[in-house]
Please model this.
Amino acid sequence: MQPTYSRKIQHLQESATIAISTLARELKSQGRDILSFSAGEPDFDTPQAIKDEAKKALDSGFTKYTAVAGIPELKQAIADKLKRDNGLEYSPKEILVSNGAKQSLFNVFQAIVDDGDEVIIPAPYWVTYPEIVEYSGGKSVIVDTDFASGFKLAPTMLQKHITPKTKAIVLTTPSNPTGMVYSRAELEAIASVLKDTNIWIIADEIYEKLVYDGKFCSVGSLDSASLERTITINGLSKSVAMTGWRMGYLACKDTRLVKMMDNLQSQCTSNINSITQKAAIVALNGLVDAQIESMRVAFKNRRDIACDSIGKIPQLKVLKPQGSFYLFIDINGVSDTKPSLKSKSSSAESKVDSMEFCKQLLESQGVALVPGSAFGAEGFVRMSFACNEEQIIEGIKRIQRFINE
Model:
């Protein structure tokens, strides 16, 4: 007899962003001229001071196991950073360091979600949120936002979807995939709805350093009540170009919950790379702030170029992102020139099939984008502008050729 698999693992899907990036790399290896705008990864190198600290750690023999939650000096550096940059008061014992923000999120949902619990997730959403929630036994309650509302969750929409089973809400600011940033007033309005509930706020703030318009506000900084219910998720992958180093962290005032997540991680991966921990302290202590700002300015310039170029294509619409490094492009106008791309799904019959759009674009013009369906928003595609200006301009020219061919 054939051994069987768990039901959970059979329902877990591969990340759509990784799948598209993998396909693009495969086509490129075959000699195709491929321009990929699918990966959520800065094209800048890690600042030299961080690499130097890693070399120093290696040379000094700092290559052994550490405490599961991270070395004390790293957790103190995180606490100092959260207070200095975000107005958040956390002690080192309220912090858990993990292998990227993705593992931090996995730890959280495994620790707070029981079978049947509901987690409110505004759409468009990062592809991993519903997958982890459902793998943890929970139910993702998707709340649609739209282009007209700036892809932001309104308090009335939130109130409508709260039930006795609601365990948490996910708030991502700046957003992946839309790039929208919640203002302090908008966050306060959402917090007021949650005031007399026992609902957790999972605040994913991984793109906090990449804000171009307005000012970033941490959810937990609103007031003491918000701080108590918020689990702050952050890391260094996006802001400091440390994707491959695998360093993320969570901060939570409930030390019992942090300890339980520590226990989970101890049975899963244990501590993160010891070398990364030493190097991360440099990034957190403000020693590379000038390089971080330089990257932010470059991304802002690229955003402006990309938005201006997309705006010249009549069939496409895009809201200028306030943060992160993505454009979330409305492709529904393409149905006028390519009616075959209209979705066959009854629930999205007026929308353009974003997966088919991406497949045909990749085959025809060698441009890799991520379908909006992966983010819970059919009729859109995500384009990363974490690449040089020449590639952005050429990629958009190819998109226009595809639409007009």
Remarks:
- The CA atoms of residues 155 and 192 lie 8 Å apart.
- The chain has a mean pLDDT of 95.
